Input
Amino acid sequence: MRTVFFGTPKTAVPFLRLLAARTEVLAVVSQPDRPAGRGLALAPTPVKAAAVGLGLRVLQPERPADAVDELKALAPDLAVVVAYGRLLASDVLRTARLGFLNVHFSVLPQYRGAAPVQWALARGEARTGVTLFWLDEGLDTGPVQSVREAAIGLDEDAPALLERLTPLGVGLLDEALAELAAGRAVRRPQSGEASPAPLIRREDARLDLSRPARELHDRVRAFRAWPRAWLERRGGGSLRVLRAALPGPEDPPGTGRPGRVLRVERGRGILVECASRSRLWLLDVQPEGKKTLNAAEFANGLRLAEGDFLPVSGSEA
Output
């Protein structure tokens, strides 16, 4: 089978390697090199670097439509898309005989959009999965080839969940390639209620201590890689919260005053009260422009003690 691969980040690399092992990859399409690092030198995308290592032809159009003529000339049987990061118009989608098979990290139609793993965590889902589906002109609306579901751990964050879902997706793609080679393409319409997974904004990661602790815990783990959950600080600025945990039965109860510090425990962190007497442990934090600290170290540096308050909803408690 003659294929073309579309992808950009590290997550997509295992899928490219599988495709190269199972098919004749005619070209790899990735986003253009971007400035990176302190020197802002142009850096290849992880997919481009992997493709070069495999000796594959790489296309890096600023817009996918700019590569239509080259793709038509290649005349692939199939295109596979994993986290490419650009919408593909109908003229691009017509360049592969069988169509464009996309790997999406949710159980569609749940969490259609750019950040399905993050939003599944932020909204407290207990299960998610990987869907292989055929691209059409809508946003993640095309018919489904196959699905594999997985449970979400209570303390699992976005990088860990994505790492665990990736081999499930690779396995699905491997099975799909065998099915397609045997002429068994599946195009099952999506069913169920759709939900969005839009691009993440920094404001989405803001922690409001007047909200329930479980909601805040979910946001900390959802936005662990970027933009990272954050609290406003007295006097301006913000405090990133890199790790948090829900309390155990041995921890002190709430008092009905969100933002109140209930305990500062060396080697563990800060237990802070949230909505409806719920509580959240802040474990690892990072003040702006400084290194990551255990939250208890941060509290000691500010002389923050039990009974003090952290800002709630951007104002003093």
